[in-house]
């Protein structure tokens, strides 16, 4: 698709730049997701839960940026769906303008529209997988912190094996 000609309508601009816009938004979402996933994996791999005095401080530190990853996973399919709906709208507009229905052009338009949904899912699925993996790591670190606190408050007699 080339650039719209002078005097073009907004639909012509949408037709020319829709793929770039959807790919740009999904690419940006993907980049942000990968950045925060790497940052969280590095942080959670090196954090010392014993250095936190309260469970609230620990929870805040461990769950930082997880909301961003989950939000990207939840919204990427909708961005892809928006691209699909707009692509179908453009296809139907082109059919209406031409006055005739050619199966090949309709199928091509619909196939190009559906790629936006597929790309949205390609961003969302890994995002949610990483979110769940990171959330599990947070739960494990929090459980270790609570267990260490319980042992510290119960004293040395709690750590000894019971005699039989």
Features:
TonB_ExbB_2, transport, 80% helix, protein transport, transmembrane helix, 4 helices, mainly alpha
What would you say this structure looks like, in words?
It is a multi-pass membrane protein. The chain crosses the membrane at residues 20-45, 66-90, 110-131. This is TonB-system energizer ExbB. Residues 61-146 form the MotA/TolQ/ExbB proton channel domain. This protein is mostly helical and 164 residues long. The chain has one domain (10-158). The protein has 4 helices and no strands. The protein has helices spanning 10-46, 55-63, 66-98, 103-154. Helix 1 (10-46) runs antiparallel to helix 3 (66-98), helix 2 packs antiparallel against helix 4 and helix 3 (66-98) packs antiparallel against helix 4.
Task: List the SSEs and their pairings.
Blueprint lengths: L9 H37 L8 H9 L2 H33 L4 H52 L10
| Oligomerization | single chain
Mean pLDDT: 88
Structural class: mainly alpha
Shape, per Cα inertia axes = rod-shaped
Report the order of strands and helices: HHHH
Rg, rounded, reads 26 Å
Helix count, DSSP H or I runs of 4 or more residues? 4
* Poorly predicted parts: none
Strand content: under 5%
InterPro entries: ExbB/TolQ_transport (IPR050790), MotA_ExbB_proton_chnl (IPR002898), TonB_ExbB_2 (IPR014172)
Domain MotA/TolQ/ExbB proton channel: 61-146
Keywords: Cell membrane, Membrane, Protein transport, Transmembrane, Transmembrane helix, Transport
Subcellular location: Cell membrane; Membrane
């Amino acid at each position: 698709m080339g650039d719209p000609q002078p005097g073009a309508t907004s639909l012509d601009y949408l037709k020319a730049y829709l793929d770039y816009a959807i790919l740009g938004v999904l690419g940006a979402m993907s980049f942000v997701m990968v950045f925060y996933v790497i940052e969280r994996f590095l942080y959670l791999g090196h954090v010392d839960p014993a250095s936190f005095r309260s469970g609230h401080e620990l929870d805040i530190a461990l769950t930082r940026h997880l909301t961003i990853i989950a939000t990207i996973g939840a919204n990427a399919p909708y961005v892809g769906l928006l691209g699909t709906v707009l692509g179908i709208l453009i296809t139907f507009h082109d059919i209406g303008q031409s006055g005739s229905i050619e199966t090949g052009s309709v199928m091509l338009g619909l196939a190009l529209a559906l790629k936006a949904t597929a790309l949205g899912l390609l961003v969302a699925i890994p995002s949610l997988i990483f979110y769940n993996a990171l959330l599990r790591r947070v739960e494990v670190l929090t459980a270790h912190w609570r267990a260490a606190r319980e042992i510290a408050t119960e004293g040395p007699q709690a750590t000894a094996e019971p005699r039989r």
